[in-house]
Amino acid sequence: MYGVVFRDALITMSELNISPLEIDSTEDTPAILLDAEKGVFKIKGISMPEDAQLFYKPVMEWITQYCTKPNSKTKFVFEFEYFNTASSQRILEILKTVEKIHNHTTQASFSWLCNPDDEDMKEAGELFAKLVTIPFNLITSHTATKHTAGKLWKL
């Protein structure tokens, strides 16, 4: 029987059940939806929390758990209006963690959505794309990053 050690307990792959993680946006933090069952992995909005490591801690915990038994395809979408330096470190941590699951049985990719007029976000996406070895799509759209407080998900 195959299993993984998670929080000091042996869990078989069939027992690993991850509840969706949904965080509503605020003035300073992005909306986040991570739902393995629906195949939705998205972060959208402004990311400048006072403590980025603390804000992204549940996100990294969820992703780390998900990576023990990922879907056959994982497409992670980022759609930022703005992020600060501390958030960029957490974004890179997410990229590097998800990148590890990309292999011959699991496909992982990233999409970076931004407004075509936002040179800073385009450049940030291009830089992040150079830091990973898996597919990274830079998508520009005039409807990208229209910020709305609260829930952004109508899936």
Question: What topology does this entry show?
Answer:
Layout: E1 3-6, E2 9-12, E3 21-23, E4 31-35, E5 40-47, H1 52-66, E6 73-83, H2 85-99, E7 107-114, H3 119-130, E8 136-140
Parallel strand pairs: 5-6, 6-7, 7-8
Antiparallel strand pairs: 1-2, 3-4, 4-5
Description:
27% of the residues lie in helices and 31% in strands. The chain has 155 residues and is an alpha/beta fold. The strands form two sheets. Strands 3-4-5-6-7-8 form a six-stranded mixed beta sheet, with helices on one face. Strands 1-2 form a two-stranded antiparallel sheet. The chain is globular, with a radius of gyration of 16 Å. 25% of the residues are buried.
Please give a handful of descriptors for the protein shown.
alpha/beta, six-stranded mixed sheet, 27% helix
Radius of gyration of CA atoms, rounded to a whole number? 16 Å
Q: What proportion of the residues form beta strands (DSSP E)?
A: 25-35%
Structural class: alpha/beta
Number of beta-strand segments: 8
Termini separation comes to 36 Å
The coarse overall form would be: globular
- Unreliable runs: 1-15
Taken in chain order, the helices and strands follow as EEEEEHEHEHE
Counting DSSP H or I runs of 4 or more residues, the number of helices is 3
Instruction: State the oligomer.
Output: single chain
Q: Strand count, sense and closure of the main sheet?
A: 6 strands, mixed
Can you give the mean pLDDT? 86
Q: Strands of the biggest beta sheet: in what spatial order?
A: 3-4-5-6-7-8
Estimate percent helicity: 25-40%
